[in-house]
Amino acid sequence: MEGSYKTKKEEGRTNKMTNFKTIAELKQTNKNNGMYFFSKDTMKFFNSKIEFKLINKNNKQYFITSERYYKDDPKLYTVRMVTDEKASIQTVSEFQEFNTIEKARQYIKELKQ
Question: For residues 111 and 68, what is the distance between their CA atoms, to the nearest angstrom?
Fold first, then answer.
């Protein structure tokens, strides 16, 4: 699922800002471009949920997902980034890196260009 600090996962990505207004628009664009990140089956397989609206930071758009292996397991959170106008999604943090949504939000807040 990337001077200035860039994670390895951000290297080679454009600084062009994607301009999605809502998660719903992002999901539809992703689907229209033949991708499955937000498909019902994919979300169900990972027991994944979108936890927060799109966050604009450093000319990029981020959002947070939660995943859990079993329904009784605690949620763990992952930071994702929209990489292009086709609504490609990339994981910026480690998968399930954060045990609270607040830590995931703080991670985004601390990202540098």
Answer: 25
